[in-house]
Amino acid sequence: MLHDADIESLERATLDAVAPPSVEALPGWLLPFDQSTIGRAKSAVPLSHAAQDIHVVQTIVDLYSAHQLPAAFRVADVASLSGIHQELRRLGFTPQQPTLVQIGSARQMLGVVAAHTNTPVTVTEHPTAQWSAVYTAPGFDAIDGAHRVQALSRSATVVFASLADPLGPVAAGTASFSHGWASVHGMRTLERARGRGLAGYALAALAQQAIARGIDRLFLQVDEGNAPALALYQRAGFQTAWRYHYWRDSCTD
After folding, report:
1. In Å, how far are 60, 79, 180, 184, 217 from 158, measured between CA atoms?
2. 109-145 pLDDT per residue, tens
3. How far apart, in Å, do the first and last CA atoms of the chain sit?
4. Residue 208 Cα distances to 165, 166, 177, 203, 229, angstroms
5. Residues facing 121 on adjacent strands
6. How many domains does the structure of the chain reveal?
7. Sign of the CA dihedral running 82, 87, 88, 92
8. Which of 9, 80, 110, 196 is spaced 20 to 30 Å from 57 by Cα?
9. Beta bridge partners of 158
10. Would strands 239-249 and 72-76 be described as parallel, antiparallel, or unpaired?
């Protein structure tokens, strides 16, 4: 069970990884500002799941407007935040894109693949052309991929994992180490290379990086409808801590 201090550290670690250009704070909230396609980098998020003053919602909307950005929120589906949910609905926001926050262990994740494998994973402290090429490859949204490369490359807490075969780069992912957490972001595998266990190899390499830093606590965030990813993460020992929705203004979608 996660306590408020765990939730706060996890949310701060999330923003360290996706590295929005600007972040402001209100009591109990973080407000990231970004022009990208990355929802976590541009959605206000509460730092606990305790009941919140509903009047903060309008204040947040006004602050995003001052930045010439549409307001968006990332709020857990928990009863204690029902007042915030109701206020968001009153202001014309709708819940979209249900997403699971999952918690795991680096040592357990390391068991995703056998200790001995002939599939090498390259892990670097700086982005490489091999790593970034995966995100803009055919089959992925090129604009979204470019935004993710830019955001993760901007982060000061991330390492970069990639795999290639004779035809070129085929899989990539990152891990961030911040606020006592290791977190997994940006897992991608080219369609032609799926079914070969490459994501598992990348996860194991990222787990080794966490263990080397003395960090065992892991988290990731995954779309609720992404069945292949959920199956992999279940095998890696992840369990859902909570679900959230992005709340966006229905008039600006």
Report:
1. 29, 33, 14, 9, 16
2. 887 765 546 678 999 999 999 999 999 999 999 999 9
3. 35
4. 22, 25, 12, 9, 20
5. none
6. 2
7. positive
8. 9
9. 176
10. antiparallel
| Confidence band, pLDDT 50/70/90 cuts, at residue 253 | low
pTM of the model: 0.94
CATH assignment at residue 190:
3.40.630.30
The strand pair at 168-178 and 181-189 is best described as antiparallel
Q: For residue 53, what are the domain limits?
A: 4-99+244-249
List, as one string, the DSSP characters of 89-157: HHTTEEEEEEEEEEEEEHHHHGGGS-S--S---EEESS--HHHHHHHTSTTS-HHHHHHHHHHHHH-SS
> Residue 166 above 90 pLDDT?
yes
- The rounded distance, in Å, linking the Cα atoms of 144 and 148 is 6
Q: Are residues 91 and 108 in the same domain?
A: no
Give the per-residue pLDDT at 89. 97
Q: Which residue is listed with tokens 């993760």?
A: 152
Cβ neighbour number for residue 191 with a 10 Å cutoff: 11
Q: What sections of the chain are H helices per DSSP?
A: 4-18, 56-66, 82-90, 106-109, 129-135, 142-154, 198-212, 227-235
